[in-house]
Structure formats: structure tokens, C-alpha cells
Amino acid sequence: MVLIDNVQEAAGRRLMESVLRNPADGRADQVPFFAGLRGQGHPALRNAARRTLPEMARTCGWTPGATPSSRALLIPLPPLSPEGTLRTIGASCPSVPPPSPNCLTPHTG
Description:
The protein is α/β, with parallel strands linked by helices. It has helices at residues 10-21, 53-58, 82-92, and strands at residues 2-4, 33-35, 49-50, 73-74. The chain is built from 3 helices and 4 strands, in the order βαββαβα. The protein is elongated, with a radius of gyration of 17 Å. The N and C termini lie far apart (34 Å).
């Protein structure tokens, strides 16, 4: 599995576009690729399927298409609050002391 964030940036965009084009030879993907994208209207994803998180909890009924951008499935995720972040860290890493809530406060400017 590959997880990458900020694919809206130049290097991330090039990597994502390469991953979407790569299976053009007809071979099935062997590695799942998850990407974090901020914003909408990314040109490399114009034919991407879009689903909601509740839809994906049941079944998505999606299969990749023939064009590179149709090989992407976009699922918007709600922002994680500082409290939600602390709960997630606490549940995932019970032996690690949680960070101070102050360090999870978004910075402005």
C-alpha cells in the first residue's frame, strides 16, 4: 500500500498522474494507492468517480474505467477535529502519551 499526502502540489500531482497512467498496459494493480488531495477540480481527475463516505461503508459498485482519470475514486473526508485526533491516537497507540491539545490547534497566518 502507498499513502501520499498533498497530491495537489507539483511533485504529488506528477506521482499521482503517473500512478493513474501506469496500468494502461492492462495489468491489474498490485498495490493500492491512497492519496490526500486538498481542493477540487484537479485536471488529472476530471473523469474520476465520486462517492460519499456513507456510500463506501455499504458498497461502492465501482470499477476502474479505460481512461487514466477514471481509475481514481474520490471520497471526500470530513476534517478531523483536535479531539478526534486525540481519540484516534489514543485508540491506536495506547502506550504512547497523547500530545498536548495545544499542539493540535490549527495555526493561522
